């Protein structure tokens, strides 16, 4: 199982970024996928999840600003982040978890850093 995040960087408050997570080594379409983030000195927190059926859920802090999506044909998970705030700055991680029909996984990418600053 391999998860490789990309798309992080420096953005001004109010700006946008799109993160990507390229996956391999498992049947992508049959798993729940999530984005987590961890800011310095804080615990890792769940940002958004998407099920194998495409049902999405979000942390209250990002609802209406972030959008998680998946492209099963490209084995890629996305996180569109709009109206970014300073408190969104963190390392963002891709995670694969529960499966529809296969054994559950618990794997993480290496993370991609998002910095929000003027």
Characterize the biggest β-sheet.
7 strands, mixed
Distance between the termini: 37 Å
The radius of gyration over CA amounts to: 14 Å
The number of helical segments is 0
Mean pLDDT: 97
Helix content: under 10%
Structural class: mainly beta
Number of strands: 11
- Write down the secondary-structure element order: EEEEEEEEEEE
Overall spatial form: globular
What proportion of the residues form beta strands (DSSP E)? over 45%
Would you write up a description of this structure?
The structure is a single chain. This protein has 118 residues and is mainly beta. It contains no helices and eleven strands. The strands form two sheets. Strands 2, 4, 5, 6, 9, 10 and 11 form a seven-stranded mixed beta sheet that branches. It has a four-stranded antiparallel beta sheet with strand order 1-3-8-7, with no helix packed on it. A hairpin with a 5-residue loop joins strand 5 and strand 6. The termini are far apart. The mean pLDDT is 97.
Defining key terms:
118 residues; 7-stranded mixed β-sheet; 11 strands; globular
Write the layout of secondary structure elements.
Layout: E1 2-6, E2 9-11, E3 17-24, E4 31-38, E5 45-50, E6 56-58, E7 66-71, E8 76-81, E9 90-99, E10 107-108, E11 112-116
Parallel strand pairs: 2-11
Antiparallel strand pairs: 1-3, 3-8, 4-5, 4-9, 5-6, 7-8, 9-10, 9-11
């Amino acid at each position: 199982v391999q998860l490789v995040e990309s798309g992080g960087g420096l953005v001004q408050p109010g700006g946008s970024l799109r993160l990507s997570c390229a996956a391999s080594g498992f049947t992508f379409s049959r798993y729940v996928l999530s984005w987590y983030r961890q800011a310095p000195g804080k615990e890792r927190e769940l940002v958004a999840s998407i099920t194998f059926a495409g049902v999405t859920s979000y942390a209250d802090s990002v609802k209406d600003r972030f959008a998680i999506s998946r492209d099963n044909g490209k084995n890629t998970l996305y996180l569109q982040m709009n109206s970014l705030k300073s408190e969104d700055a963190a390392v963002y991680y891709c995670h694969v978890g529960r499966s529809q029909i296969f054994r559950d996984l618990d794997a993480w990418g290496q993370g991609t850093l998002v910095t929000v600053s003027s």
